[in-house]
Amino acid sequence: MLKNSLPKIISQTLPGPKAAAIIERRKNAVPNAIRCIYPCVMAKAEGAMIEDVDGNLFLDWVGGVGVLNIGHTHPDLVAAVQEQASKYFHGMFNIVTHEGYVKLAEKLNTLAPVRGLSKKTMFANSGAEADENAVKIAKSYTKRPNIIVFSGAFHGRTLLTMSMTSKKAYAAGMGPFPDGIYRAEFPYLYRTPGNLSGAQAIKYYMESLQKVFEEASPAQYVAAIVLEPLQGEGGFIPAPLQWVKAVRKVCDENGILLIADEVQTGFGRTGKLFASEYWKEAGCEPDIIATAKSIAGGVPLSAIIADSKIMDSVSTGIIGGTYGGNALACAAGLKVLEVIERDHLIERSNEIGKRCFEVFNSWKEKYEVIGDVRGLGAMIGIEFVTDKISKKPNSGLVNQLIRNTANHGLIIENAGVYNNVIRFLAPLVITDEQLNAGFEILENAIKEESERATAFSLMF
């Protein structure tokens, strides 16, 4: 059975002949900007494994970039979508009511760790749509024009969300951008200026936020502060709880809403159903959660959840959309929540995370090129550097690791401001045997590529 298989490359070349032909067709049919360097063309997938059109078996540590927490083609999810498809695919929720939307909203209202006793949920299609709607809702409620985001942030590729996103490679040539978006420094503790730590580091980053109020937008004009509990594209950097508590206090003192972008961190990935459950335990829960990715196991869906009084402040016509809360997607979303609870995938996330931290930290001790290991639950980043003293980002090595591991049947992906972080996002149904196989492939690649880089440098 594919879901219990181990990585195995059987074609003489990668991509294999069938995959190479399809990749060539892709070049001729699809814009070059939608880039892919991986030599894998999917034929079928189960659990954490992908079989390509040439019969090669790949272990997937990317999971559709955080979409497949319950794994590829989970049989219960397939059955739920098939059952819904036999009844109806779609009926726009502004026109007809379907119970799946209501049931999933009710379920999320009971589970989401946002402030308020009475909560409401709306659905959209993507993470960017969730973030954009969260901002619209915050502006509607506060009647304020501005928002604050952070360095390292990724919120999407719509005009508003690419403006909110920090890395401007995602927005090159796309201006002019919307006004009213201001940026403070996110606490990237591995690279804090002056090697500040503890309370000093938190103070430094809070001063950065205060500068936004002083130099860009006075607090009384800020509708919301938007942040990721654990930055994804920014390098898998967890937001320190003490800093979140301080940000929450600033929000409360100034009538600002706190929005948690849980697009990538939701649905068990970080050892909680939502990463902001850690915030709630610390007394600093968000006002709004925007989430997507693993919400429906690969069917496009996203959700925005907030207190009823916040949601009901929005005028008719401001929010909604044709496909938001599509019947197939809601059926999938309900089944995903059932599978996560029934199969104890949150506990499994913590087990996987514990094992990964043990292994990755042992590598950190062994290899000069690993500078930092960080994350929550089974959402973990390994930051690669040229050496531990300079901390110079080593994106070249990471690029080689991605190619090396793919050639041995392991799919990994980079992240980070400097593209020097390997992110771990394997499906939570990955077996221990598959996890160990991935460790072996990645460590062998680290040895090979770092030794090759050292030998090359000695030649010059």
TrEMBL record:
GO MF annotation: an example: 4-aminobutyrate:2-oxoglutarate transaminase activity
Q: Which domain of life is it from?
A: Bacteria
Catalytic reactions on record: (S)-3-amino-2-methylpropanoate + 2-oxoglutarate = 2-methyl-3-oxopropanoate + L-glutamate; 4-aminobutanoate + 2-oxoglutarate = succinate semialdehyde + L-glutamate
Cofactor(s) recorded for this entry are:
pyridoxal 5'-phosphate
Q: Name the InterPro entries for this protein.
A: Aminotrans_3, Aminotrans_3_PPA_site, Class-III_PLP-dep_AT, PyrdxlP-dep_Trfase, PyrdxlP-dep_Trfase_major, PyrdxlP-dep_Trfase_small
- Name the enzyme's class: transferase
Entry's PROSITE patterns?
Answer: AA_TRANSFER_CLASS_3
Keyword Nucleus listed: no
Which EC number(s) are documented for this chain? Answer: 2.6.1.19, 2.6.1.22
- What Gene3D superfamilies does the record point to? Aspartate Aminotransferase, domain 1 (3.90.1150.10), Type I PLP-dependent aspartate aminotransferase-like (Major domain) (3.40.640.10)
Instruction: Write out the similarity annotation.
Output: Belongs to the class-III pyridoxal-phosphate-dependent aminotransferase family.
> Mind telling me what this protein is named?
(S)-3-amino-2-methylpropionate transaminase
